[in-house]
Each structure stands twice: as structure tokens, then as C-alpha cells.
Amino acid sequence: MPVIRTLSKVAKQALLNPGCGCQPITVAVRTISFSPRQVTSDASFHSVSFSETDHPKVLITGGLGQLGVGLAKRLRKRFGNNNVILSDIRKPPSHVFHSGPFIYSDILDYKNLREIVVNNRITWLVHYSALLSAVGEANVSLARDVNITGLHNILDIAAEHGLRLFVPSTIGAFGPTSPRNPTPDLCVQRPRTIYGVSKVHAELMGEYYHHRYGLDFRCLRYPGIISADSQPGGGTTDYAVAIFHDAVKTGKFECNLKPETRLPMMYIDDCLRATVEMMEAPADTLSMRTYNINAMSFSPEELAQEVQKQLPDLEVTYDIDQVRQAIADSWPMNFDDSNARNDWGWKHDYDLPELVQTMLNYIGSDSRISQAN
Ligand SMILES: NC(=O)c1ccc[n+]([C@@H]2O[C@H](COP(=O)([O-])OP(=O)(O)OC[C@H]3O[C@@H](n4cnc5c(N)ncnc54)[C@H](O)[C@@H]3O)[C@@H](O)[C@H]2O)c1
């Protein structure tokens, strides 16, 4: 039992050292990784197998959503096709299925998840499965299962197998009592959606596992993400993607948020690059485990005006969705991401004009190709 005794001693020390400056203890614990689930069931411990000199072997959960396929493409370019496995509970479209490894994985199935991690010698886990804000409000109990119970499975598997774990959080992790303009990394977080509550829970649990068990937990709070080739999954910022498709296809757009609703936003390339940079950042550059990242901030009115510079005939009308509006009104208007910029050099590439130009070029050429076919 000497290992258990050493671990209890280290854990006790960590508990007695309440500040965030837990670096020396974290390093000591990180040499042996275990999960509370393992301790209670069979008290077996696993050594960390990840070596910084190897290419990581990455598993992406919820990989068929707006962000996963793009992240897999980027990581596969960097680490090799077979080193990045996409997973989801949905059937992948043929081009995704043929572009690299895909596997069925329901994050609520702990045993299956563990089998995938073990059989594929996974070292990095990017946890994208979630129900987003608007969809979560429409199905609270499923959101609670996927976003909270699912996260517990992920945390235990990651701790047990010494994985580096990335879990995205969101502007939705803040609420009406948070400072909104700008919102700093550390402030009151009392969100009013199940999505936001589950993301605060994820931030806190991840940080707790980091300090308690040495889990290499990394988390970025994404703003609303805008992408041309993947559809958003039911969030409050979806309008900022839909406007481009409708503008190109019909010349008309009906917005479900009020014209003056200002929210932080980011082009998908910046978001995915930030994710890879955060995952690769040396541990000693991270003064925190959860960071805000930002690029721009705009309202529907300002976005429409920028689109109209390219497509002057675009007609925009407003039909407010009360659920989404209430959510947006409780979220940050502007995000303070100075800690990410100072600690690990975060820098965005896309501001509003570049975003609009890129989206219209992409969607325009896409619709010209489909018309020609
Ligand atoms: N897209 C954004 O604007 C945005 C902003 C902030 C944070 N995020 C976060 O980034 C992550 C990815 O976002 P996204 O936009 O790609 O989400 P999405 O809704 O488009 O995709 C989520 C995926 O999770 C899958 N999923 C649902 N239940 C599952 C289960 N039980 N097991 C396995 N997979 C399951 C779904 O099939 C879906 O493909 C999420 O955690 C989200 O909270 C996204």
C-alpha cells in the first residue's frame, strides 16, 4: 500500500494548500494519475504514458458538430491522419467518414469510452459533446445528462489514463450579475441556463481535478463561433452564421435577436487555432486552467451593415425569439482575454471586415458551384 499512502499524503498536502499556486504539488501528483472512480472500485493506479516527444493520439468527442470536423482536419495535418479519431453518436457524412478515423462513442457510456481510450492509446481528449444553450433550454434533463453526467465520465477517464483534457466553456458561463462590458476571467458566474450552469460546473470540476489529481485540464471560454462550412448546433449566436447563408441565397434575413444585442464572436479558424495553441502551451505558461478568448464584438445591426457593404440589396427584418433574447441579454457584451494574450500569446486574426469577406467568399463560391452542378 505505499503508493496509496504517498497519494493520500500528497492529496492531503494539496488540500492544505488552498491557493492557486499549487505548481510544485501538481508536478508531484502528475507522475501518478488516478481517478476517484478507480480508487473506490479497485484502487488500481495507472502511470501517465504521454511523452512530450511523441505525437499525441487524440480523441474528439461530439466531433460531428460545428467545430469537431474542422479541428480534426487541423490536428490531422499536424499529427498525422491516424493519430486523430473523431467520435459522435450520429452517423458521419461520407466525406467525413472517408477523411480519417471515425468511431461511435456515447459519452454517457463510461465503459465504452474507456475501451476506446485504452485500445487506441489516446493521450489527448478534446471533449466537444454538449447540448448548446437554446437546445439545452428546450430539453433540460438531456442537457443535464450530456453536459454534466457525460463530463463526469470524461473527467474520470482522463484522470485515470493521464490524458491531457480540453473542455470548451463559453460566454454562456456568465450571467446577468457578471460584469458584461468587459467580462474578465475571474468574476461572479451565475448563469441562468442549464448550458451555462453545466459549463461553470465543467470549469470548476476540471480545475478541481487538476489541483486534486494532477489532471492536465485545459479550458477556453469560446465566444459565438462563426463558420461557413459547418452548421451551428442550436446556440444563441447562430444568427451570425445564418445571415450569410440567407444573404447569399435569398437576399433576405430575419434575425431572432434585437438589432442592438452585442455579443463576443470569433471566426472558426481563430477558435480552432486557439484550441491547438492552448493544448500545446507549456504547462508553466498557464497561470490559470480556464481562459477567456476573444476576437470581436458586434450586434446584429452592425453585422448587417458590414454585410450590406458587399451585398447592398440585403433586406434585414427582426422577429425576436424571447428565449434566445433573454439568454443573450444575460451574456457578456465584450470579453476581456488579456490573460490568454499575456500567458500563452493568444492573438486573433479575424476582425469583422475580414470575417464578412471570408464568409461571403466561401458561401458565394459554394453556391456558385452547386448552381453549376
Ligand atoms: N459553436 C459555438 O459557437 C460554441 C461557443 C462556445 C462553446 N462551444 C462549445 O464547443 C463544443 C462544440 O460545440 P459545437 O458547436 O461543435 O456543438 P454542436 O452542438 O454543433 O455539436 C455537439 C455534438 O455533440 C454530440 N453529442 C450529443 N450528445 C452526445 C453524447 N451523448 N455522446 C457523444 N456525443 C454527443 C452531437 O451529436 C453533436 O454532434 C461544445 O462543448 C460547446 O459547448 C461552442
Write up this protein:
It comes from Salmo salar (Atlantic salmon). Pfam families: Epimerase (PF01370). Catalyzes the NAD(+)-dependent oxidation of L-threonine to 2-amino-3-ketobutyrate, mediating L-threonine catabolism. Its EC number is 1.1.1.103. This protein is α/β, with parallel strands linked by helices. It folds into two domains: 2-226 and 266-295 and 333-344, NAD(P)-binding Rossmann-like Domain (Rossmann fold, 3-Layer(aba) Sandwich), CATH 3.40.50.720; 239-262 and 296-328 and 351-372, Alpha-Beta Complex (UDP-galactose 4-epimerase, domain 1). Helix content is 46%, strand content 14%. The protein has 15 helices and 15 strands. Strand 8, helix 9 (194-213) and strand 9 (216-222) form a beta-alpha-beta unit. It starts with a helix and ends with a helix. Residues 61-62, 64-68, 88-90, 105-108, 128-130, 132, 146, 150, 168, 170, 222, 224-225, 232-233, 235, 237 line the site of nicotinamide-adenine-dinucleotide.
